[in-house]
Amino acid sequence: MSQPTKKVILVTGGSGLVGSAIKYVIETEAPNSRFGKHDGEEWIFARSSEGDIRDPAATRKLFEKYKPTHVIHLAALVGGLFKNMKYKLTFLRDNTLMNDNILQTSYETKVEKLVSCLSTCVFPDKVEYPLDEDKIHLGPPHESNFGYAHAKRMVDVSNHAYHEEFGCNFTSAIPTNVFGPYDNYDLEDAHVIPALVHKCYLAKQNGTPFVVSGTGKPLRQFIYSRDLAKLFIWQLREYDSIEPVILSVGEDEEVSIKQVADAIVKAVGYEGDYRFDTSKADGQFRKPASNKKLLSLIGDFQFTPFEQALDESVQWFLQNYSTARTGIKPTAPKS
């Protein structure tokens, strides 16, 4: 009986939110199951410290070290609204360089399949909802993060160009709002769930009010990082198209910011003064994305119930606070 051909799957951004989740799923799902590690597979979770993939030579060195046959490209320069607005060129250039180096090196080293991670910010600012895969290029993205959005959008353009000119099997995923263990909890720069988790934790520790900006009414589709990890593994193994696919819970699973905050209060065990500051702006009320394409292709897939996923995420944060990405430097012991 012939041995299965060895597959080496390189995951860039391997220590981040989604990379850590893929590692968890590969290690905890049953071997040779749909989402578990298969015989003949080697999974490499590369950290940014292993090489600056903005640099073509460093990227080439990384590929020469691991000799990947498949790549999941998650590495990116990411940030909150303030950073995106302030450093538009940096977000554009750094992400463009990373993406170009990963795609070009994958082509040069004959990688069999590459899945890159995009973002819903690639969609036009003025667009008819729900978002779907055919609307990416119908107009310019929102002004606030056009640098990051254009860099990500160009991955889809490049995937098609590499396929048309060289026959490369390069595709991309568009997740909605991701949360889970190993998130970024830096209050200056975090997305809504990790920011509220950290804020609630500090309110409990300090005996201060837990105040949430806005009315709590806006709705969002949140996807648990460990569910998203399974979808990336599915896309790598089973999805056979260059066209991007939205990886998300359904529009019917939107939750309000108030529901999020309520669940965080419960998970953290906060019993103090909890309220909403309605003088602060809410932002966009809803930005629904359709997961019809995903569901039509993947078949039976169970998303983790939101409250369960949130509780697991909060418990991870509470247990790993000292090493989590909080933006708070540990104070040195007094001599």
How would you characterize this protein structure?
The chain is an alpha/beta fold. Helix content is 40%, strand content 14%. It contains ten helices and twelve strands. The strands form four sheets. The protein has a six-stranded parallel β-sheet with strand order 2-1-3-4-5-10, sandwiched between helices. A two-stranded parallel sheet has the order 6-9. Strand 4 (113-117), helix 5 and strand 5 (170-175) form a beta-alpha-beta unit. The longest helix is centred in the first third of the chain and has 21 residues, at 88-108. The protein starts with 6 loop residues before the first strand and ends in a 16-residue tail after the last helix.
Topology (SSEs and partners):
Elements: E1 7-12, H1 17-28, E2 41-45, H2 56-66, E3 70-73, H3 81-86, H4 88-108, E4 113-117, H5 146-166, E5 170-175, E6 177-179, H6 192-206, E7 210-213, E8 219-220, E9 222-224, H7 225-238, E10 245-247, E11 255-256, H8 257-268, E12 274-277, H9 292-298, H10 306-319
Parallel strand pairs: 1-2, 1-3, 3-4, 4-5, 5-10, 6-9, 7-12
Antiparallel strand pairs: 8-11
What labels describe this entry?
40% helix, single chain, globular, two-stranded parallel ribbon, alpha/beta, 335 residues
- What percentage of residues falls in helices of 4 or more residues? 25-40%
**How does the major sheet shape up?**
6 strands, parallel
What is the structural class? alpha/beta
Rg estimate, integer Å: 20 Å
Low-pLDDT ranges: 331-335
- Tally of DSSP β-strands: 12
Number of helices: 10
Order of helices and strands: EHEHEHHEHEEHEEEHEEHEHH
The pLDDT mean sits at 93
What is the 3D shape? globular
| Strand order, sheet with most strands | 2-1-3-4-5-10
Range of strand content: 5-15%
Quote the distance from N terminus to C terminus.
Answer: 66 Å
